[in-house]
Amino acid sequence: MSDDADDRDSKGPDDRDSKGPDDRDPKGSDDRGGDDSDRRHGRVEHHPTPGVMNSLRHWTDVKPVWRIALNYVLVWIARVAPSLRVRNWALRRLGVTVGEGVSWGLEATPDVFWPELITLGDHSVVGYDSVILCHEFLQDEYRTGEVVVGERAMIGAKAVILPGVHIGEGAQVAANSLVTRDVPPNTTVAGVPARRMGREEDGGGDE
């Protein structure tokens, strides 16, 4: 089942590709020959928090309690509703940008604090019990980052997508993977952390 075209959310993805030197990975390059432009760190925003308490203790200063309570209810609907149309409706009410024909799997969980940072491209698939995170609460700061799932991309069951990751058109993420960096279009990745599979490891993938 897919949503009607006239119900498609018209909101486009926000461009968050600016990158500063302090955000670069200390290794500087991908172990498969990529560079920092393939990584999520440059588009993740850092938000320092005051005092000695960890950043999660400050969440009520960032988001109103009523909003997170409402988000929790909508996340629950998006996880367990038997209808794809109802799940997509709940995602849109959360603020997720949902393209035409998106399939959101049962028990899949969007970010409860910043769901508005998620963009799901047309006909993309998010598999059973997978998680898309747009935030990280750390000791001295919290971080937020937009997650974009490209058109006809597929995310396997129980995969976890970290903040700031962009998954390209037609890309595939294998089940139980932890995606810590961008996935190029038409590429298959797997593992913890996720890496390219098969001939793509030798540069044979279509990028």
Characterization of the model:
It is a single chain. Helix 2 (65-80) packs antiparallel against helix 3. The chain contains three helices and 17 strands. The protein has one domain (30-202): UDP N-Acetylglucosamine Acyltransferase, domain 1. With 207 residues, it is of the alpha/beta class. The chain has helices spanning 59-62, 65-80, 84-94, and strands at residues 45-48, 97-98, 103-104, 109-110, 118-120, 125-126, 131-132, 135-137, 141-144, 147-149, 154-155, 160-161, 166-167, 172-173, 178-179, 188-190, 195-196. The strands form four sheets. The protein has a six-stranded mixed beta sheet with strand order 3-6-11-14-16-17. Strands 2-5-10-13 form a four-stranded parallel beta sheet, with helices on one face. Strands 4-7-12-15 form a four-stranded parallel beta sheet.
Kindly list the characteristics that best describe this protein.
207 residues, alpha/beta, UDP N-Acetylglucosamine Acyltransferase, domain 1, four-stranded parallel beta sheet, disordered C terminus, disordered N terminus
